[in-house]
Amino acid sequence: MKKIQFFDTSLRDGEQTPGVNFNTSEKVRIAKQLEAYGIDAIEAGFPIASQGDFEAVKAIAEAVSKTTVVGLARCAKADIDRAHEALQHANYPQIHVFIATSEIHMKDKLNMTREEVLQSIKKHVAYAKSKFDKVQFSPEDATRSEKEFLLQAVQTAIDAGASIINIPDTVGYTNPTEYGQLFNYLKTHIPNFDDIIFSSHCHNDLGMATANSLAAIENGATRVEGTINGIGERAGNTAIEEVALALYVRKDFYQCESNIFFEETKRTSDLVSRISGVPVPITKPIIGLNAYSHESGIHQDGVLKNPNTYEIITPSLVGVATNSLPLGKLSGKHAFKTRMNELGYQLSETEMTESFKRFKDLADKKKQVTVDDLHALVLGQAHEKAD
Ligand code: KIV
Ligand code: ZN
């Protein structure tokens, strides 16, 4: 089994979600929960960005004991120094240095030539290495960079001392086939590929972040970057809980394992959603309200006979108390009878047939039939009998 590490950037890239702003104590609370969830590395912030971010990274470095704590830095000495200062008390500090390598970013944003970018990588990765044991380098906008130049940039960073290379799909532009091929290209052209941690970093602009991250793993990546609930700028980042569980549920296919404690999934998701103020869509895989909810009669009947008929994830595995079988117009007699028994009603066959008919009539008029409706239904039936 190949070991996959998870790098959580909810507190850095995730905080780039418009409207999200974590204070230091919120960041520390989330960081501690990420540690409990089994995350291998936490990107705590961008220390040079503000005094608040610096203090939050410092506080997390002091609060977290087992997990690597990471600070982001541009290719600039001042950024690296500030990250070093913020991380000085971390048990396992790591720096994450980045610079863009796509033509559009180099020309229109950085106003730098290719040669200048390579020189900057060489100089700043070496400087970072003089201060940190673990140096990560990211060629920003890697998936829109010219492949041969990207290889040159990555090789330059490795030669200067980077032991972790992250390949960002900064604008969520790639697809699983292409992203997999890119990792494969790097694998075949970097002589000591296996000594380096290669990492995926995907954005979800075209809804492919999870699939792209999995494609990277299939092609040599041993680390996945992402956020809890997929929070992040624009359409967000890879949702860590999705990749982690996909690897687990399809171990037969991926042959991978991780350090994630799956039972902490829901608690972690709830905390990030509550503190960030970003709600989780009800249909969100793994942690959405409806992820273990079965509405149609055929599905409800199957789940009551054997949950595996329609559930590939046991809710308790990810810390969700139970599945649910909401009663609506598509529900069948099996689910109805089960619910009535749960509510304490032992109805005869004739009473059950009559109640079920009333239930169906009501369900046709309402989106969902509630427990109160069910009590009222039986009560109404009893009154009619008495009359
Ligand atoms: O998406 C991106 O390119 C980033 C970098 C800073 C790694 O978040
Ligand atoms: Zn990003």
UniProtKB/TrEMBL annotation:
Any one GO CC term of the record: cytoplasm
Cofactor: Mn(2+)
Residues noted as binding Mn(2+) in the record, renumbered to the chain: 13, 201, 203, 237
Domain Pyruvate carboxyltransferase: 4-266
Gene Ontology BP annotations: L-leucine biosynthetic process
MF terms (GO), sorted A to Z: 2-isopropylmalate synthase activity; acetyl-CoA C-acetyltransferase activity; manganese ion binding
EC code(s) of this entry: 2.3.3.13
Pathway recorded for this protein: Amino-acid biosynthesis; L-leucine biosynthesis; L-leucine from 3-methyl-2-oxobutanoate: step 1/4
Catalytic activity: 3-methyl-2-oxobutanoate + acetyl-CoA + H2O = (2S)-2-isopropylmalate + CoA + H(+)
Alphabetized UniProt keyword annotations: Amino-acid biosynthesis, Branched-chain amino acid biosynthesis, Cytoplasm, Leucine biosynthesis, Manganese, Metal-binding, Transferase
Superkingdom of source: Bacteria
Function: Catalyzes the condensation of the acetyl group of acetyl-CoA with 3-methyl-2-oxobutanoate (2-ketoisovalerate) to form 3-carboxy-3-hydroxy-4-methylpentanoate (2-isopropylmalate).
Similarity field: Belongs to the alpha-IPM synthase/homocitrate synthase family. LeuA type 1 subfamily.
Assembly information from the UniProt record: Homodimer.
Protein name: 2-isopropylmalate synthase
Shown residues in whole-protein numbering: 1 to 387 of 504
